[in-house]
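In response to reviewer comment 3 from the previous cycle, which asked for concrete evidence that the modeling workflow produces usable outputs, we include below a single protein chain processed end to end. The sequence was submitted unchanged, and the resulting structure tokens are shown without manual editing.
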Amino acid sequence: MLTVVSADVDATAGVGAIWIVWRPKSTRARERVALVEWHDEQWRYAGGGSGPQDDPVDVDLLDVRSGGGVLSLTRSIDPPRSITAAPWISCAKVRLGRDVGHVLIGARRIQNPKHCKIIAVWASPYIGRGVRPVIVALGRDCAELSRIGPHGSLDTHTWARLIEELQPACFLVSVAASEDFWVFVRAKVCSTRARTLEGESAAPWFDRVG
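The workflow returned the following structure tokens.
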């Protein structure tokens, strides 16, 4: 069975992307992303890729995974036939939380579908092919819930949650980074090693520290 998960078209840039899941006669489904480009009054296949289906992701608000990219067809169709002169077509697989009403891909607004999965496509200069647009998750009242920058790996909501959860450990990290702490550890290790050579077990002190 072949299922189209999501499709996106940036009419201004003349590029599109399709996210497909293929369930062959096997225990694991496969995903395919196809990138297309509008050229010479028709859509042309520019490239794509496939692989095993991603594992399910528990998303609070926003999760972005790279979907790949290809060089524009203009590299071989239109002069100058140069890699650096041709645009780069990129896409990303975006998973959204149930509280998200819309997502902004740069200046474009896309409604959150019921299954909370979309593919986003854009075109950029070849030299900037690793840079994606800012992606923003909006609530149903259009208020911003979270965002992820061009080079980010986690959205702002997830970062805030992680920082809040890790606050109790911040003190331990700062203490462990201090010179006095490591002087204390080295002294303990040396004295423990000496006692171990004399036949005394080192386990009690390491159990207390651990």
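The two ends are 53 Å apart (CA to CA). We consider this sufficient to address the reviewer's concern, and the full set will be provided in the supplementary archive.
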